[in-house]
Amino acid sequence: MSNPLLSLSSHSLPDLDTTDDGRSRMTRVVSMYFNRAADVLNLDPNYRLILGLPSRELAVNLPVELDSGEIHVFPGYRVQHHVAMGPMQGGLRYRPDLTLDDLRALALWATLTAAVADVPFGGSMGGILCDPSGLSSQELERLTRRYVVEILDIIGTERDILAPDFSTDQQVMAWIMDTYSMHARQTVTAIVTGKPLELGGTHGSHESIGYGVWCLLDAALSHLGGKPAQTRVAIQGAGRRGGAAAQLLHQAGYRVVAITDSGGGIYRPDGLNVPEALDYFARAGSLSGYLEADAISDAELLTLDCDVLVPAYLQNQITADNVNQLRCRILCEAAYGATTAEASEALDESDIYVIPAILGESGGIITRYFEWVQNRIGFRWRRHIVLERLRDYVTKMYHNVVKEAEAHSVSLRDGAYVLGVRQMGRDLALRGIYA
After folding, report:
1. Can you give the CATH number for the domain in which 240 is found?
2. Is the whole model's pTM more than 0.90, yes or no?
3. Which one, of 256, 385, 435, lies nearest residue 332 by Cα?
4. What is the pLDDT of residue 17?
5. How confident is the model at residue 380, as a pLDDT?
6. What per-residue confidence (pLDDT) applies to 25?
7. Secondary structure (DSSP) of 174-204
8. Which residues of the chain are under the pLDDT cut of 50?
9. Domains in the chain: how many in total?
10. Across 33-181, where does the E strand assignment appear?
11. Alpha-carbon distances, residue 152 vs 76, 80, 132, 177, 319 (angstroms)
């Protein structure tokens, strides 16, 4: 039986980035590997049907008064995928190219990542169709608070916990926490993760995905053979994900040779002065104009001769058009959907060692779990404890996936999906199907 995601229609949003059959490119990738894993496991067709579908989708319209006095209605969405493993959790993104199909794919990926990382969460994902760069801070606050009110009935500390994603940050999480708390008539810190430290956030939250990437690369080098000082790394992205990864890898002795952001990028074959480059980025808002390295584009970065390539920014970056030009030894995806289905299939046949986004994104989900636990017990762990526990989780996860891949003679990507689908199916079987 095929994954039902393949036949779902994108009925509510114009899909701006689809394949020929109308599906979101991200949906096609996650569906393809979900079905492959289900085939390997000989998964019960009824379980495949249930696990492949979101458990709930909510569409809302958000009337917001702009600073001009005009009322604008923004479409908003929350997709909740799977609840068998525990409360759901997932990001909230503000994007002008948001699609409902993408949210479905991201919610499923969040469930798979939690399952592989052995975190007791299901996956969810939400978003608002808007261009945040064209809205003032006051407009964004009104939009955020209205969104929370409209989804109030389906979120909660034991239902669905929100987290930052593209174009949302600690401040957005603080607005969400405050709005939810006002309606609950008490302060509810655990309704969001990734919030300011002063409001119950956790140490290590900002760099969690980058820290996870560092842990994965340490584990991969130990497994495959290699030393950080001899490892050249190119990173697409200079923000929370890519910038944090670059800083941590540089500190650990890796040679970070290239970084790009939306405004341009920089390359230095003998290694960048990463702290200086990121300081420039923080001041200028772009790496463009940085004079201590050569200018480079995203397209050029992806095809650099390097040991490790880390796409940590946008979806659909590695495609059928450029996959055969990749010259990295290890591809460590730090963004869901960074590689299209066609490119993923080509990579399956290549010599490139792919660390999939299910692993590359795991540092974020694991740290969200840590923050949620701390909020619920009312005690904040010290920074070194958070990071030590994060490294333990990521390292154990990597080796579990390696064992799974070797047991079934499949790639690391397929091994991650097999482990995730098995864990999801196990929990569903233990709980049973209420009908």
Report:
1. 3.40.50.720
2. yes
3. 256
4. 47
5. 96
6. 85
7. HHHHHHHHHHHTS--GGGBSS--GGGT--TT
8. 1-22
9. 1
10. 56-65, 71-80, 88-95, 122-129, 160-164
11. 13, 14, 22, 11, 39
Q: Which residue has the tokens 């759901």?
A: 88
- The answer to whether residue 331 sits within a structural domain is yes
Q: Which residue has the tokens 């974020």?
A: 364
Give the model's pLDDT for residue 85: 86
- Give the model's pLDDT for residue 24: 81
In a domain, 146, yes or no: no
> H helices of 10-44, where?
25-41
Task: Single out the residue of 386, 319, 301, 397 nearest to residue 358, CA to CA.
Answer: 397
Report how far residue 211's alpha carbon sits from residue 247's, in angstroms, rounded to the nearest whole number: 9
Q: Which two tokens stand for residue 369?
A: 């779990």
In the prediction, which pLDDT does 82 show?
85
Domain that holds residue 320: 208-360
Question: Taking a C-beta distance cutoff of 8 angstroms, is the pair 360, 333 a contact?
Answer: yes
Helix (H) / strand (E) element for 264: namely strand 264-267
Q: Cα(285)–Cα(265) distance, rounded to whole angstroms?
A: 12
User: CA-based angle 278:281:286, to the nearest 5?
Assistant: 145
Is residue 120 in some structural domain? no
Task: Give the whole-angstrom CA distance, residue 168 versus residue 103.
Answer: 15
Half-sphere exposure of residue 58: CA atoms within 13 angstroms, side-chain side: 19
Structure confidence at residue 23 (pLDDT): 62
User: Cα–Cα–Cα angle for 97, 102, 103, nearest 5°?
Assistant: 105
> To the nearest whole number, what is the mean pLDDT of the chain?
93
In a domain, 424, yes or no: no
- Residue 384 pLDDT: 97
